[in-house]
Amino acid sequence: MQFNTWLKWSACVVTLAGALCTSLRIDPLNIYLLNLGAVLYLIWGYRIRELNLVAINAGLLLIYLYGLYLS
Predict the structure, then answer these.
(1) With CB atoms counted within 10 Å of each terminal CB, which end of the chain scores lower, N or C?
(2) Domain definitions of the chain by residue range
(3) What is the rounded CA–CA span in Å between residue 4 and residue 48?
(4) How far is residue 70's CA from residue 56's CA, in Å, rounded to a whole number?
(5) What kind and span of H or E run contains 60?
(6) Which of 42, 40, 39, 20 is nearest to 30 (CA)?
């Protein structure tokens, strides 16, 4: 499996795990997982040269880091 494929699916699984933790109110694990998912998607978007994915995930990462700061 190519590295970009592994990175994309890892980001997907981690982000979904973060969303599940959010729905189950498992704090602050949800924020850590969502941060990690955003970082992985950010790296993946940069590697495949999709600037819209980089912009979205950079914004999400800032929002999640703010949430982590507040918790």
Answers:
(1) N
(2) 3-70
(3) 8
(4) 21
(5) helix 51-70
(6) 20
Give the span between the Cα atoms of 23 and 15, in whole angstroms.
Answer: 12
For 30-70, how does the pLDDT look when each residue is reduced to its tens digit (9 = 90+)? 989 988 999 999 999 999 999 999 999 899 888 888 877 88
Specify the 3-state DSSP secondary structure of 67: helix
pTM here?
A: 0.86
Distance of CA 33 to the CA centre of its chain: 7
